[in-house]
Specification:
The structure holds two protein chains of two kinds. Chain A is an alpha/beta fold. Chain A folds into four domains: 118 residues, Nonspecific Lipid-transfer Protein, Chain A (2-Layer Sandwich), CATH 3.30.1050; 244 residues, Rossmann fold (3-Layer(aba) Sandwich), CATH 3.40.50.740; 216 residues, 3-Layer(aba) Sandwich (Dimethylsulfoxide Reductase, domain 2), CATH 3.40.228.10; 142 residues, Barwin-like endoglucanases (Beta Barrel). Chain A is built from 30 helices and 37 strands. In chain A, the strands form nine sheets. Chain A has an eight-stranded mixed sheet, with helices on one face. In chain A, helix 13 links the parallel strand 17 and strand 18. The longest helix of chain A is centred in the N-terminal third of the chain and has 18 residues. Chain A is globular. Chain B has two domains: 191 residues, 2-Layer Sandwich (Alpha-Beta Plaits), CATH 3.30.70; 85 residues, Sandwich (Immunoglobulin-like), CATH 2.60.40. Classes of the chains: A alpha/beta, B alpha+beta. The interface between A and B is large, with 63 and 49 residues.
Chain lengths: 987, 285
């Protein structure tokens, strides 16, 4: 289109939009400016003036414009400005300086967004339900939901019911029956409580400053967490934060560290891997290098036997729902509680398995929620010792000849050495059922009975929280040994043959695995190719500008407090691209970088989620930390340990887009197969932000504008809704529906594949000796030792009973042969632990998502299995066996104190027979932290059981937590705090 | 006869996921529904609660969960206790506490034998689960508890009373505290999981010093010499007897397993569900 015509059309279009849409007219009144469009090579162009909402315009060059948008030449300008816009062309023009913007950064962002709004002002969202009620949609960590809004207020949130327009559901035929999932979404508790979280009394509604913090004078760092906060304006808050960023940057690279939780609110834009990473790449910061904290044993251990590095060492799961329902005779859940945390889509499928008469066995010191619901045999080993149990299974299988000999011979290496160890030929100790009984407390007869059943009947193994990894025993002190045993027993029974596989129906629903929609780990618009999976698909499919930080310093997250206090910390990388990536060390400080003196804390509360968390509490009072910002939605235990608090809004108050449990390439590829349907939500901005809270995107944009990087951050004024459209356009959805239809209805159900074209069964290709045919692009081509697609990601290409990669790395806690080494805390080895006779398990929470949903204003707090209201406070529930409770005079709902040398926490007792005597079970993660006395040095009344857990790594040379077995003592809470910290105990 | 609302709750399906519990809170906290219900306080009111019961003893244990709420009784003690007609029975069976007329009437809370009515301290009114009457009146076909449930625990049924009684008889449904004669409209399936006792035990054999689980052993439960029930041990030598009346006195157990031998024990059943321990079979003399 001719340039002069296009430029003439811009003010015309603005006038029309202002006449038709009052919102647009209002926007035009926000700023006065003169914007000049012009060519660089010749003095041609047009200016547009906005004054009090009125538009004037003239051809040619204005003498004194506020803003100049300049193009190298006419051809480039016409290409750039002619709709429909080619994003790749536009990005190219911006990146290679074919176009440019001169003028104040905030004005440039505003003006460009105003131009973009010409299109989006015409978009409509939501379904009119009558009586002034609009039904919007959203997405949460607990599932996608309908949101009913009236008069600007959320009145109701519900699971989604599908209608006749939505794609049909799949059907599986098994043993003469047909199974089809219900036509709706189901919600985890933390998804169902969202309205209470939006309107929580604990929402942060205004920017705040600690009363005794003066950036130009006395900072009173010692009072973080103690002093009150006072409301300030956004302008003041942004000025403090942006000038502190400049001050810290002047000290040298790496002076600012950013600390985010592992998860954020649902959605591709608001996730920390998107807005957060994009912003901080532009600033340049010391990164906290996360450990694989739900995957420890799989990542540091199991991976060495079978690869699967891009799944953090856990196995693939395609097709297993159908195979399990058709073939399996028994399902063994080993430290596996899929009915906790992740919703209830698999629960329905397990109910089918029960109807089919498949036997269930549960191995867990706590008869967990899934075990309670499904029933079956419950076996409760002493925490940490499970791998002895697993080795005894191997002993029975070997001595009775009931394992998959053909698979072991053809597809594995090292079995003879493994067999010699199991039979005791190597170390003189046969790993018999009687031998394991002394370690685990499980009767030898139960091991023999289970081994014989397993060795002769088709058996599925659900290993870890959701059956293919995550939580439970993998993050205990012997979690590496346990996860390695899960892989080994899988191999001995020939995993991949029909009826023998991993997952126990939690994963592997027959969905379409080829339909592309990005998951949050693909980094959305972050442009971050280094620390997200952006480059896998997203960077090509959604053109956007790359971002990259020049700061190369990192701190292993577990030891941030040590890094601040001691000025140094070392650990190992979580690098999933190869098996040996985990052997690479991280050292803080890095060469040429400076120590961290400012922390920007983004969401979540580390006190409830980080091990030995009293370290984190006292860290904030260290004078080396000159400045701390906390950007959060809610006031949680950690929030006030800051100087400035920035209030973010919830996902209901801003735009976003996301698919239910789609993490994307990067760590749990095709995670959505936990669900019965693929559901993509346009996460509507259902209500205006409460108080003065802003979206994370807009907060970062506002800071960026103070630093002159707003245009860079927002790619020239791109709003969150515009980004949603770009994500939509980048996905396969655009081939099935239109943007306007999707925006209005708010969700899309991806059609499942026909029964004849479903993804092949997981691991069956390896079992049968075919080339890999499951739809995951792993391992990387360079990791195949034979031909592409042939064999596993190991040195031999086979399953390795003796892990050859571990021969190349000397970690005494990870010998190549997975010996049984009792490494759990034990008074027999460490007599100073004698006064702490009970083993604490701290599994993933069932009702909150980590600590999300556990806010003080949440409806989850009234769930008696989560918290108990006593004396005006909601105390976290700790489960204690009847025997241990009676010995201490403890009854249901009594307040009890859990303590050791690291910490002391008051909980409410739930006395139960579902727990092995000697074991306490209390969920990890608490949004509250309420010290009875001096922060970091007294008893916590909030429920941060992680205060009790060790901060030593899961093995000597790794970077992993091991909170799932910790020695503690328990007593009735007297109300008087006498606890004092001591030197941290060993282990 | 008009068709009326009833609710059927299946105890066996409940996983304590709390979807229903949270849905009721979501519907009422912060929402004023004139004529039906005033807003529920943000915390502390559980108009629909889930009761927990463990049966058995370590290591043979079961855990069951039962949603409880206003029973919308046909002969409701709360209606009798209310003054000024503060509580009404609708033609469709639903009981509504008028949020205006009930002000100050705390005796209504105490009148409910199911403890299903909460006292709103701030508004000084009694409040209970309204069977989502406001939504049913708008055309909803089921309650939010049912819509939110992933397990299919709830079934809202609108039928004539005679038909409901047929369903009740056919499906063995029970109501809570039938002895009070309140005629609840909430019915339970598999209620024995909450009210009856379970006993479990383990049968083993011992040969050459090696202990093994005795699978397939026949276990007979007797009372005063008369057979009450019989079952067979599973792979792990375990057996369970369910639906035993609490405090029902002395029982004997006899185990036989072909050549493996016999075993027996006796126990007194109190209010709790005991684990009977390990029975080692002795070869028949």
């Amino acid at each position: 289109m001719n340039l002069s015509l296009i430029l003439w059309g811009i003010p015309q279009a603005m006038r029309v939009a202002a006449r038709v849409y009052p919102d647009y007219a209002a926007r035009l009144k926000e700023r006065d400016c003169i914007a000049q469009f012009r060519l660089r090579d010749v003095p041609e162009g047009r200016w547009v003036q906005l004054k009090g909402g009125r538009i004037s315009s003239g051809k040619g060059i204005h003498k004194n414009p506020d803003l100049t948008i300049h193009f190298k030449n006419k051809a480039i300008a016409e290409n750039f400005l002619t709709p429909p816009f080619d994003l790749l062309e536009r990005i190219d023009a911006a990146k290679n300086f074919k176009v440019g913007l001169d003028g104040p950064d905030d004005l440039a962002v505003w003006f460009m967004a105003t131009l973009a709004r010409l299109e989006s002002i015409t978009w409509k969202s939501g379904t009119d339900m009558g009586n002034g009620v609009t039904r919007y949609t959203n997405g949460t960590n607990g599932g996608p939901i309908f949101v009913y809004v009236k008069d600007g207020k959320i009145i109701r949130t519900t699971p989604m019911d599908f209608d006749d327009e939505d794609a049909p559901s799949w059907t599986i035929e098994a043993r003469g029956r047909k199974f089809t999932p219900p036509r709706k979404t189901t919600l985890a508790a933390h998804g169902a409580c969202q309205k209470s979280m939006v309107y929580s009394k604990n929402r942060l509604l205004y920017p705040m400053k600690r009363v005794d913090f003066d950036p130009n004078g006395e900072r009173n760092i010692q009072n973080r967490g103690k002093s009150e906060f006072v409301r300030i304006s956004w302008e003041e808050a942004l000025n403090i934060v942006s000038s502190e960023i400049k001050r810290a940057k002047a000290k040298g690279p790496g002076a600012i560290a950013v600390a985010n939780g592992s998860h954020h609110q649902w959605g591709n834009l608001g996730h920390y891997l998107s807005a957060f990473n994009r912003f901080w790449n532009l600033i340049g910061v010391t990164k906290l290098m996360h450990n694989p904290d739900s995957w420890e044993g799989w990542y540091w251990g199991a991976m060495h036997h079978w690869g699967n590095s891009l799944r953090l060492g856990a196995p693939e799961f395609y097709g297993t729902v159908e195979d399990c329902l058709k073939e399996a005779e028994m399902m063994v859940f080993w430290s596996s509680d899929p009915d906790a945390t992740y919703g209830f889509e698999g629960t329905e499928r397990r109910a089918w398995a029960k109807e089919l008469g498949i036997k269930m066995v549960h191995i867990d010191p706590y008869m967990n929620h899934t075990a309670a619901h499904l029933g079956g045999k419950w076996i409760s080993p002493k925490p940490g010792t499970d791998s002895a149990f697993a080795q005894a299974l191997c002993h029975v299988w070997i001595t009775e000849g009931i394992y998959d000999k053909s698979f072991v011979e053809k597809r594995t290496t090292g079995f003879d050495e493994w067999k010699a160890y199991i039979l005791g030929e190597t170390d003189g100790v046969a790993k018999t059922p009687e031998w394991q009984e002394k370690e685990t407390g499980v009767p030898a007869r139960d091991v023999r009975a289970l081994a014989r059943e397993w060795g002769t009947k088709k058996t599925y193994l659900g290993a870890g929280g959701w059956g293919v990894g995550v939580g439970g025993a993998c993050r205990g002190p012997m979690g590496v040994q346990w996860a390695r045993m899960m892989a080994i027993i899988g191999a001995m029974q020939g995993y991949g043959r029909p009826g023998y596989n991993f997952g126990n129906l939690q994963y592997g629903a027959p969905l379409d695995f080829n339909f592309y929609f990005p998951g949050y780990a693909e980094g959305s618009f972050s442009g971050d190719l280094a620390y997200s999976a952006n480059s896998a698909n997203n960077y090509q499919r959604m053109p956007h500008i790359v971002t990259m930080s020049s700061v190369r310093q990192g701190i292993p997250r577990m030891w941030l407090p040590e890094a601040i206090a001691n000025g140094r910390a070392s650990g190992y990388l979580t690098d999933v691209s190869s098996v040996q990536g985990q052997f690479f060390p991280i050292h803080y400080p890095s060469p040429g970088h400076v120590p961290v003196e400012m922390i920007y804390k983004y969401g979540s509360a580390s006190f409830g989620t980080m091990v030995d968390a009293n370290r984190w509490v006292t860290m904030y009072q260290n004078p080396k930390l000159q400045f701390v910002v906390n950007q959060s939605v809610w006031k949680e235990g950690e929030t006030t340990y800051a100087d400035v608090i920035l209030p973010a809004c919830t996902v209901f108050e801003r735009w976003d887009i996301g698919e239910w449990y789609n993490v994307g390439a990067g760590y749990v590829h095709h995670m959505f197969s936990m669900n019965n349907h693929r559901v993509i939500s346009l996460q509507h901005k259902c209500i205006e932000p409460l108080g003065e809270s802003k979206s994370d995107y807009d907060i970062f944009l506002a800071i960026a504008e103070k630093l002159g990087m707003g245009s860079m951050y927002s790619e020239g004024g791109t709003t969150e809704l515009d980004w949603c459209k770009r994500v939509f356009d980048s996905s396969d959805m655009a081939k099935h529906t239109t943007w306007r239809k999707f925006l209005k209805k708010g969700y899309f159900v991806v059609p499942s594949d026909p029964a004849t074209a479903r993804a092949p069964l997981a691991n069956n290709w390896f079992y049968e000796g075919r080339k890999k045919d499951t739809p995951e692009p792993y391992p990387l081509p360079s990791d195949y030792v034979r031909g592409y697609g042939e064999g596993l990601q190991t040195a031999s290409g086979k399953f390795e009973f003796i892990a050859s990669t571990l021969k190349k790395f000397d970690d005494p806690d990870r010998p190549p042969l997975n010996q049984y080494m009792p490494l759990y805390e034990d008074p027999k080895r460490d007599p100073e632990l004698g006064e702490f006779p009970l083993q604490l398990l701290s599994p993933h929470s069932r009702y909150p998502f980590h600590l999300m949903g556990d806010d003080e204003g949440s409806s989850l707090r009234d769930i008696r299995e989560h918290r108990v209201l006593k004396d005006g406070h909601y105390y976290l529930v700790a489960r204690i066996s009847r025997q241990d409770a009676e010995a201490r005079g403890i009854r249901d709902d009594d307040l009890i104190r859990l303590w050791n040398l690291r910490g002391s926490v008051v909980c409410a007792a739930q006395v139960t027979d579902r727990l092995r005597p000697g074991v306490i079970s209390a969920s990890t993660a608490s949004a509250s932290y309420r010290p009875a006395g001096e922060p970091g040095r007294s008893t916590d009344l909030g429920g941060c059981v992680n205060l009790l857990n060790s901060s030593k790594s899961i093995t000597k040379k790794s970077h992993g937590i091991k909170p799932n077995t910790t020695l503690i003592q328990v007593e009735k809470w007297t109300g008087v705090d006498t606890w004092k910290p001591a030197e941290a105990v060993n282990g | 006869m008009a068709s009326k609302w009833n609710m059927i709750v299946d105890v066996a399906k409940c996983d304590n996921c709390r979807g229903c519990f949270l849905a009721v809170k979501d519907e009422h906290i912060g929402n004023d529904i004139p004529g039906y219900a005033a807003p529920q306080p943000p915390q502390g009111h559980n108009w629909l609660e889930i009761e927990r019961r463990e049966r058995g003893s370590y290591p043979i244990v079961e855990a069951h969960f039962m949603p409880v709420m206003c029973n919308h009784c046909d002969d409701a003690p709360c209606i009798k206790a209310a003054k000024n007609g503060a509580i009404t029975k609708r033609p469709d069976g639903i009981v509504i506490i008028d949020p205006v007329k009930s002000r100050g009437q705390k005796q209504i809370v105490d009148a409910c034998p199911y403890r299903a009515i909460s006292w709103n301290e701030e508004l000084q009114i009694p409040q209970a689960w309204i069977f989502d009457a406001h939504l049913l009146d708008e055309g909803w076909t089921r309650t939010r508890a049912e819509q939110s449930c992933a397990m299919g625990v709830f079934q809202s049924v609108k039928v004539e009373d005679a038909e409901m009684q047929q369903i009740r008889a056919k499906e063995g449904l029970e109501v809570l505290k039938p002895e009070l004669g309140t005629k609840p409209r909430v019915y339970y399936r598999n209620l024995h999981l909450m009210t009856k006792c379970l006993v479990g035990g383990t049968v083993v054999t011992r040969a050459n010093g090696v202990e093994d689980c005795a699978a397939g052993a026949v276990v007979v439960l007797k009372q005063q010499g008369r057979e009450v029930a019989r079952t067979t041990t599973d792979t792990f030598g375990e057996f369970r007897f369910d639906r035993l009346e609490p405090n029902s006195g002395r029982y004997e157990i006899e185990v036989t397993s072909g050549s493996a031998g016999r075993g027996s024990l006796a126990f007194d059943l109190g209010a709790d569900s005991p684990y009977l321990g390990v029975i080692t079979l002795a070869a028949a003399a």
